[in-house]
Amino acid sequence: LTKSLTVPRIGPALDTDDTPRRDRLVVEYNTSTNPTFEGAVRDTSGRGLDGIMYNGASYDATEKALKFVGSSSTTVNSSDKIQSTYDWGSTAPAHTFSVWFKRTANLTDWEWICSFGQANITGQNPGILISGDSHSEGGNIISFDIFNDQVTVQHTVNLHEWTHVVATFNAASTAWSVDNCKIYVNGELKAGTNAVAGTFNLVGNEITLGATHEGKRGFTGSISNFKLYDVA
Questions:
Q1: At 131, is the secondary structure helix, strand, or coil?
Q2: What is this structure's pTM?
Q3: Inter-residue contact 36 to 42 (CB < 8 Å)
């Protein structure tokens, strides 16, 4: 006789909303293999949101990463970037960024790693920023930001050293606060500070790597395996 056996689960049950399932990916730039074609980087999420390379952004096959030579300038298109678009259908969508980056230069202003929406006086867009070494607010800051409304953590992002950041917004309310926003650095949840509190109201549909959506305040270095999810 064959008898079926049900084995009980040992340990806590998984909350699927906290599991990074592929069906919740908005965009993924898997840089492990050469993802570029005709001036673009291929979206490997299956949604077809390929990113267009602007102003000299490139792929380094040796490093298996996207490369940027940015500038602290606030002039439009002063920095290279990679950009796609996505309609969130919400003014305060839940989301998660996951990104590896490596700095190769010291810049004086905020350096934009990744974001979606429009970053300007009338627009709000969530993004991951790091402060330049001589920035007026001090160096060693990682900011989860909606254009001057910030949740920040302290972490030394050394030159020529890979850093992994995950930032989540849970959309429990529209408040941009330490209650709704979490920042993980190299796998560790960091204690966040509300540098400036605000209310999230998304403007624009751009998804941008390496600079603001307008190509300002660029990042100089490499970005690898960028992922954006529509869940916290």
A1: strand
A2: 0.89
A3: yes
